[in-house]
Amino acid sequence: MAHHHMRRSAISIGRPEITWNVGNLEVICRHAFIVVWCNLWEFRAMGFDGISQNPILCMKEVDAMKIAICDDREDDRGALKALLEAYGQDFEIREYGSGKSLCGDMDYIRECGIVFLDINMDGMDGLDAARQIKAECPKVHIVLVTAYVNYALDGYKVKASRFLLKDDLEQTLQECMDDILWEIRQEERVVEFGFVEGNIRLKADDIIYIETSKHKNVFYTKEQTFSIYKKMDELEEDLKGMGFVRIHQSFLINMKYIERISSYVMSLTTGKEISVPKSRYPEVKRQYTLFKGAE
Predict the structure, then answer these.
(1) Contact predicate 239/191, CB 8 Å
(2) Three-class SS of the chain
(3) In this predicted model, which residue has the larger pLDDT, 35 or 188?
(4) Dihedral angle of Cα 252, 254, 255, 261, to the nearest 10 degrees
(5) pLDDT tens string 205-255
(6) Residue 25 and residue 213: Cα distance in Å, rounded?
(7) Pick from 35, 36, 48, 44: which is nearest to 214 by CA?
(8) pLDDT tens across 54-97, in order?
(9) 116: Cβ–Cβ under 8 A, 6 or more apart, which residues?
(10) Under a CB-based contact definition with an 8 Å cutoff, are residues 18 and 11 in contact?
(11) Is the model's pLDDT at 275 over the cut of 80?
């Protein structure tokens, strides 16, 4: 394979914009954003199997998970925040010095993925705050943080996701975050793909169907479409267990959007009708029946 040399231009240290060229590809980096223009076929000819496999080309700003830290000790809040910032993922973090101030910002808490709560606080303690939060935001993951191990059983009473000792945070926070983030992804069934449009997270439930079109597979959602250079077999495996059925080589359907299957025709709630091959029809009907029975 021929070697391709990068021609770098307009690089200036300290300026917010960097531009460089690779063949017919121009990349402009502005702060945390990367914007790409390219002739895709020329880029593929350089030996890359689609944009998604080049990390530079699949960066796109995604919403940072919101996290709340509530502790009446400023130094403890700062220590926990520093560990979260070192975790390796972007978070939007708000700090609160009391349970009352935390519960007074319920609009933010409703958008949070995780709330870290110190148990021992003056006024409204962490357990009372946790009860109020769970009553209004049952899906929020609460992590109780304390200096005293004898409070562990109280965590179960307020349906806390985890219980951490302050002295062990450096050793335990990484595993705690790994587990909770995995649970959140399972709950939301969020999938992330390197689309032509960028690296994008989607809720599996928002994907209506995926259709092969020329050399790409196109994701159809209620709002827009996304294209990807990835084989349908691989997409089917990525979405396994999330309610999708392969009706033939070119279609992967979210069964949530199936209105009916009759006479070898699948009708979607969007009004789209797709023919189901006779060879696949019994298996598609079987999977759809099981899916409806599990709802």
Answers:
(1) yes
(2) CCCCCCEECCCCCCCCEEEEEECCEEEEEECCEEEEECCHHHHHHCCCCCHHHCHHHHCCCCCCEEEEEECCCHHHHHHHHHHHHCCCCCEEEEEECCHHHHHCCHHHHHCEEEEEEECCCCCCCHHHHHHHHHHHCCCCEEEEEECCHHHHHHHHHCCCCEEEEHHHHHHHHHHHHHHHHHHHHHHHCEEEEEECCEEEEEEHHHEEEEEEECCEEEEEECCCEEEECCCHHHHHHHCCCCCEEEEECCEEEEHHHEEEEECCEEEECCCCEEECCCCCHHHHHHHHHHHHHHC
(3) 188
(4) -50
(5) 899 999 999 899 999 998 899 999 999 999 999 998 889 999 999 999 999
(6) 24
(7) 44
(8) 322 333 334 689 999 999 999 999 999 999 999 988 899 999 99
(9) 67, 68, 69, 70, 71, 80, 143, 145
(10) yes
(11) yes
Q: Which two tokens stand for residue 200?
A: 């994008």
Q: Which two tokens stand for residue 2?
A: 């021929």
Domains of the chain (ranges; CATH) run 7-48 (no CATH), 65-188 (3.40.50.2300), 190-294 (2.40.50.1020)
Q: Which residues contact 142 (CB under 8 A, 6 or more apart)?
A: 114, 115, 117, 130, 133, 134, 158, 159, 160, 161
